Amino acid sequence: MTGHPAYGALRPVTSHTGVLLADNPSPMTLDGTNTWLLRAPGARECVVVDPGPDDEGHLRRVAEHGPVAQVLLTHGHPDHAAGARRFGELVGAGVRALDPAHRLGSEGLSGGDVVAAAGVDVRVLATPGHTADSLCFLVEGDGPPAVLTGDTVLGRGTTVIAHPDGRLSDYLDSLHRLAELAPGVAVLPGHGPELPDAGEVARSYLAHRQDRLEQVRAAVTSLGGDPTPRQVVEVVYADVDRTLWPAAEWSVRAQLDYLREGG
After folding, report:
1. In what order do the strands lie in the sheet with 46-49?
2. What is the DSSP string of 41-87?
């Protein structure tokens, strides 16, 4: 699926944000990874969120929209972060992340931090669950509010809990945190299209997770004993494309752990 007309072209989304789509489509990445650029009108520099995979062509296309003040990572999965070090070198900017392993010549990030650059304020929200190092970035300023969610909330479908690094209890807490955002905060996801209301989407995700938990509970009862995660996947995710079953198994492992812990 190379040569998609959207790949490599900057698409404005709000007055303060634009997105470049990486050419790495797959069942897990949907159309590809969204690399976000943040810049207030009239600002010279920009902030880049999730440079994406280690794809020289994509990284150079993003770099053309510099100069870059800072690079921020929502989490360390390769489709978001593998190109970050190379990109930081290309544009001469530090890479900031929660996990020290993904930082480059810059300080870290943690919940409650505010990154002020390129005419925007980016408030860091700690949202573990998909991974232990997952962050969301609330963009505040003169333009409409938006939250960059990485893989915590997707533009289409639902998120995998990347067990054992990801934990369902953490993820549910993170969804509750997003559900408390003011009405009308747009979702700018790591994959898929943007969505109009983060709180509404988070509440929908919470309902979906509760439904899945009930299905897992029922499957464990029907299978008897101590079923394997794969056995549970075959029951609960029977209507899901089998190419997604390995990822579903991660989530089932997280769900089973959650139930064993009394969730």
Report:
1. 11-14, 17-21, 34-38, 46-49, 68-72, 95-96
2. TT-S-EEEE---SS-HHHHHHHHTT--EEEEE-S---HHHHTTHHHH
Rounded to the nearest integer, the mean pLDDT of the chain is 93
| Maximal C-alpha separation, the chain | 63
The per-residue pLDDT for 79 is 97
* DSSP symbol at 100: G
Is there a domain that residue 219 lies in? Answer: no
Q: Dig out the tokens for 217 from the structure.
A: 């509970």
Domain span at residue 127 reads 11-199
135: Cα separation from own chain's centroid: 8
User: In this structure, are residues 46 and 66 in contact, taking their beta carbons and an 8 Å threshold?
Assistant: yes
Task: Say if residue 115's pLDDT is above 70.
Answer: yes
Q: Which of 7, 1, 6 is nearest to 57 (CA)?
A: 7
Residue 88 within a domain: yes
Domain count, the chain: 1
The reported pTM is 0.93
